[in-house]
Amino acid sequence: MVPRRLLSCFGRGSNSKAKNPTASDHHATTHDQTTEEQRRGGAVVVELFSSQGCATSPEAELLISRLGRGDFKDELDVPIILLSFHVDYWDYMGWKDPFGSSQWTVRQKGYIEALKLDTMFTPQVVIQGTTQCVGTDQDAVLSNIRSAPRYPSPTLQATFERPSADTLQVSLTGPLRTKIDSRGVEIMVALYENGLVTDCPKGENKGRVLANDYVVRKFEKLCTVKDISAKKSINGTVNFTLWEGFNSSKCGVAVFLQNSSLQTFGAQNFQLPENL
Q1: What residue segments make up the domains of the chain, in order of their start?
Q2: Where is this region: Disordered (predicted)?
Q3: In terms of pTM, does the model score above 0.85?
């Protein structure tokens, strides 16, 4: 358990800166992404660390949803990939976040250490693994996205299969379009869900109906690569155990490269086909 004295729930006025489908069915769909978005520059990965047990997180969740809808296109001409990780350290406050996970808490803790911060808090936004800000600070979020380092997006081909009713298999192959040195990177794959609505009868958000998008439901490492050219193809497969009520039309898969310091070096996004 993370010491509670090191946890905070920040609102808009707060400031924190970085120191730097059935068992017999078998469905398969292949996507190959070569979009204008990739040609003009790679996507920026924006991660929100949030909790339904934090009174100010819903405001940050709304900002993430608006970013996903394209509400800031005039101010933000940068392709983005959004992921919302729900941490579990506010569950003791009276409401257990149904999407919260200790795995996401550990991920946030890694950023706290990498960015040399003193406090874990929600809502927190981390951009490209290199900068962070309070998730309700719209100006700071947009500014950090605009100034974030950008790398070519991989041009991976993704094949989605349902080998069983409760399993999604994602196979990826293609070039990363970024040269990887001897220090290497991990290729991470996140399965996220949109359009989640929760009635919250207890806790800091008691009586509210909470809407959440880009909620990470599953997160796995595809592989580790090192000493390869930008043109060299990689391939691998991850298997996700699915949850009750899984609906592929509400879900997407994000793939990104991340080094041991949790810095991101290229990302690609796939929407899952309907009726997968």
Answers
A1: 41-271
A2: 11-38
A3: yes
d(CA 83, CA 76): 18
Q: Could you give the CA distance from residue 51 to residue 43 in angstroms, rounded to a whole number? A: 25
Beta strand 215-225 with 251-258: parallel, antiparallel or unpaired?
unpaired
Distance CA 173, CA 154 (A): 10
Q: pLDDT, tens digit, for every residue of 16-50?
A: 444 443 333 334 433 444 444 444 579 999 999 99
Strand stretches in 63-129, DSSP E: 80-86, 120-122, 124-127
**Rounded CA separation 254/134 (Å):** 23
Cis peptide before 149 (omega within 30 of 0): no
Predicted confidence (pLDDT) per residue in 49-94, tens digit: 999 999 999 999 999 999 999 999 999 989 999 999 999 999 999 9
Would you tell me how many other CB atoms lie within 10 Å of the CB of residue 24? 6
Residue 106 pLDDT > 90? yes
Query: Per-residue pLDDT tens for 187-198?
Result: 999 999 999 999
β-partners of residue 122 are: 9
Asked if 216 and 190 count as a contact pair (C-beta separation under 8 A), the reply is: yes
What's the token pair of residue 148? 């974030």
DSSP secondary structure of 36-55 = HHHHH-PPEEEEEEE-TTST
Diameter of the chain measured on Cα atoms: 53
